[in-house]
Amino acid sequence: METSKSLFKARVLEYFRLVEETGDRILVTDRGKPKIDVRPFRGEVREAQDVLRGSVLRYDAPFDPVALDWEALA
């Protein structure tokens, strides 16, 4: 389904219900060009910890000074 931004604004709750009930997507256009794709959420809900697990780099010396000559900046 495709609709303009102005029509979408006027009927947003109706369109949301339609997406929830049918699972169809709605393409919202601005001056005939696609801008927003409204579709049902189908992903799994994951905890933030699970999403970030394994993404942090190892840092062996967190209390060592950074490799910047601070006196040269003064």
Main features:
about 70 residues, about 20% strand, 3 strands, YefM-like fold, elongated, 4 helices, about 35% helix, three-stranded mixed beta sheet, single chain, alpha+beta
CATH topology (level 3) name of the domain at 1-41: YefM-like fold
* Number of helices, counting only DSSP H or I runs of 4 residues or more: 4
Secondary-structure element series: EHHEEHH
Overall, the morphology is: elongated
Instruction: Give the end-to-end Cα distance, rounded to a whole number of Å.
Output: 61 Å
Order of strands in the sheet with the most strands?
1-2-3
Would you mind describing this structure in some detail?
The N and C termini lie far apart (61 Å). The model has no long low-confidence stretch (mean pLDDT 87). With 74 residues, this protein is of the alpha+beta class. It is elongated, with a radius of gyration of 24 Å. The chain has helices at residues 5-10, 12-22, 48-52, 70-73, and strands spanning 2-4, 26-30, 33-38. It is 35% helix and 19% strand. It has a domain at 1-41: YefM-like fold, CATH 3.40.1620.
Structure at a glance:
Helices cover about 35% and strands about 20% of the residues. The chain is α+β, with helices and mostly antiparallel strands and about 70 residues long. It has a domain at about 1-40: YefM-like fold (3-Layer(aba) Sandwich), CATH 3.40.1620.
